[in-house]
Specification:
The protein is an alpha+beta fold. 22% of the residues lie in helices and 28% in strands.
């Protein structure tokens, strides 16, 4: 276990070290606008190169659907922040105000009306290194801090800023502490990975009139080291006010005047700096308009504010979209803006074919599949469906969860796969022969388990734990939460039937799909006993096609040329004990008993990618071997690049 934890820590550190540090202002050349819509309760993005004209990415469609990341199946109030560590953080309200109309619940709110409007209790925290691949985690305020906030009314509008004194992201948000109380703004500190809140929320500021509700704070650093905070006071009308402080987590500099220019109610202020200028824009949502709009004022001294009008009524313009809500703007580099546009602005999903990606089995040769992914990412190929078997279920499942090719490359090159896959007992590494609790070890490797009646001595607990930990980082422990739909192919050793898994814990499905009979213990799932899916379908093109893929890209790790032959006698499952032995069983798994299906699936692939791995086998783990096989995958994919580019 210690070795596994050490490996996970080293993997995390290596991925963190690879993250880009925050660029300087001189490197910025564009603006990123995040927002949501009432119609979808999902996350949107738009880009501007001048700070005045904003155009949506992904053809004005959501980049992340709210129902895939939130307990209430919808998000509101997305706030994006770029931290000094180079990471991007997005904090959002977990709330769907139309869930009843959408059939997502039977009541207007998830709790009694006494808790007030919305009465949600959770926030969604997301993190990314590249603005494309995001982790997501739920932070339930009532569960994290039950003593003080176990019966809170609601938690809304989270925003993030880095506290240099603490060295962590500070998340501040609106809380109704109890039913019948008043909305106030609190702050808490999150962990750097942005997976949870670590400290009990504290009050950010007091408002002079205790009867007035305050909400929707936004904190912006000032050039002199102080902090400029805008917020909403629900007076008549509700409007934007400000305070200034030399402390990031305490404000008491009250100013009575409102700085917005609206007669009706406003909310959701956000302050952002114009690149290369000493000008700051205060943007706010005018919810009192029908349809609602955004208003803008600009300042150079944080005392006087010049009106800029509203979207499409003054200098600020929306191109090809309308009615964004609760937005936030940050500066980004031109390269980052171009990467977002290249990734998202493909032909509309209703027009372009849906792409499926199949990951074949082959043990350590799965590193070559990472090389293929590197080319697909560089080419901007957007994958809609993934199916995998054996090692392909691990590579494919982690990619479906949001791991990038670069992160998977690091995993293959830094992980101690031999110890991980064999459940090696670190305390017995120097013992030539030892039996502990009925299990016989040779230099720490388990070879005989006299306590088990199930084929396979290795439990696979270490690899399953590692996979579950990696999936947890991305917030994708279950199939339902995966950003890309994924199917995992296994085989039921009792019935000799192919079983395609599509629900439940992803790590357990992966563990089942790579359970080589006689080596790994089968995985019990419901009434089935599941083993390596490669025994029956090592290149599941048919599975991916059934998911809805129009075009299937298949990565085949099989090296030996296979010829049609009579259907294999699957009764060998029942006498598998006669075949136990590392060399024989691995060779049998690699060649598969169902060659007819393999050959048919290979023919069904629209783009067939076959890395050349003449000197590799299923057990060729290690840094040097991984690097060589990843490069073989790159070469094989580039040979198919002209075909791939047809689907950009």
């Amino acid at each position: 276990m210690k070795k596994l934890l050490f490996a996970l820590v080293m993997l995390s550190l290596s991925l963190t070290a690879a993250a880009q540090q925050k660029p300087a202002e001189k490197d910025m050349g564009a603006y990123l606008f995040t927002y949501f819509s009432d119609a979808t309760h999902s996350l949107f993005m738009a880009i501007s190169y001048d700070g005045y004209n904003f155009t949506p990415v992904n053809h004005g469609q959501p980049i992340i659907s709210g129902d895939s990341i939130a307990e209430q199946r919808g998000i509101r109030d997305p706030h994006i922040y770029r931290a000094p560590n180079g990471k991007f953080y997005i904090a959002m309200t977990d709330l769907h105000i139309y869930a009843q109309e959408k059939g997502l619940r039977t009541t207007r709110w998830e709790r009694d009306e006494k808790y007030g409007w919305g009465n949600n209790r959770g926030l969604v925290l997301m993190a990314s290194d590249d603005l494309i691949h995001w982790t997501h985690h739920e932070a339930r305020i009532d569960l994290l801090f039950p003593e003080r906030f176990g019966d809170l009314g609601c938690a809304w509008a989270p925003q993030t800023i880095w506290d240099p004194a603490v060295g962590k992201p500070m998340v501040y948000f609106t809380i109704l502490p109890k039913p019948g109380g008043r909305l106030r703004v609190y702050y808490s500190y999150a962990d750097e990975a942005f997976t949870t809140l670590e400290t009990e929320p504290q009050l950010l500021f007091d408002y002079p009139d205790e009867k007035v509700q305050v909400l929707d704070a936004d904190i912006c650093p000032m050039p002199d080291g102080r902090y400029f905070m805008t917020y909403v006071a629900q007076e008549n009308p509700a409007g934007i006010k400000y305070m200034i402080s030399d402390r990031i987590n305490h404000f008491d500099d009250y100013h009575a005047e409102q700085i917005d220019t609206e007669r009706g109610g406003c909310e959701a202020p956000n302050v952002w700096k114009r690149i290369g200028e000493d000008k700051w824009v205060v943007m706010y949502d005018i919810y009192s308009l029908k349809p609602h709009n955004f208003g803008f004022v600009e300042t150079t001294d944080f005392k006087t504010f010049t009106p800029l009008g509203r979207f499409n009524e003054g200098q600020m313009k929306l191109n090809n979209f309308t009615s964004p809500k609760h937005g936030c703007v940050i500066p980004i580099t031109k390269a980052e803006a171009a990467r977002l546009e290249n990734y998202w602005n493909k032909p509309d999903v209703s027009e372009r074919p849906k792409i499926g990606l199949v990951f074949g089995g082959g043990g350590a040769k799965g590193a070559a599949e990472v090389g293929v992914l590197k080319v697909l990412e560089e080419a901007g190929i957007k994958v809609d469906y993934i199916a995998g078997t054996s090692i392909g279920s691990i590579v494919g499942g982690l990619y479906a969860a949001g791991y990038t090719a670069r992160e998977l490359e690091t995993m293959f090159q830094t992980q101690e796969w031999l110890s991980l896959l064999t459940d090696r007992n670190a305390s017995l590494i120097n013992e030539p022969y030892q039996t502990v609790n009925g299990v016989t070890y040779i230099f720490g490797f388990p070879v005989i388990d006299r306590n088990s009646s199930i084929f396979g001595v290795m439990k696979g607990e270490s690899v399953e734990h590692m996979l579950d930990s990696m999936l947890s980082v991305k917030g994708c422990r279950n199939f339902r939460s995966l950003p890309i739909p994924f199917r995992c192919v296994t085989a039921d050793i009792r019935t000799a039937q192919e079983i395609v898994l599509s629900k439940g814990p992803v790590s357990k499905a992966m563990r089942a799909s790579m359970s080589i009979p006689g080596i790994f213990k089968p995985v019990k799932l419901d009434d089935r006993l599941l083993v390596d899916g490669g025994m029956l379908n090592n290149l599941p093109v048919d599975v991916c096609r059934k998911m809805g893929a129009d075009i299937v890209i298949a990565i085949d790790l099989q090296q030996e040329e296979q010829k049609p032959r009579k259907q294999a006698d699957l009764s060998m499952f029942s006498s598998l004990a006669d075949m136990i032995g590392f060399g024989g069983i691995l060779e049998w798994i690699t060649n598969r008993p169902d060659i007819e299906k393999y050959l048919a699936n290979r023919q069904k692939a629209d783009i067939y990618i076959h890395p050349d791995l003449p000197d590799a086998d299923a057990s060729s783990f290690g840094n040097k071997n991984a690097a060589r096989m990843i490069q073989a995958g790159v070469v094989a994919a580039k040979q198919r690049l002209p075909e791939l580019q047809r689907y950009l």
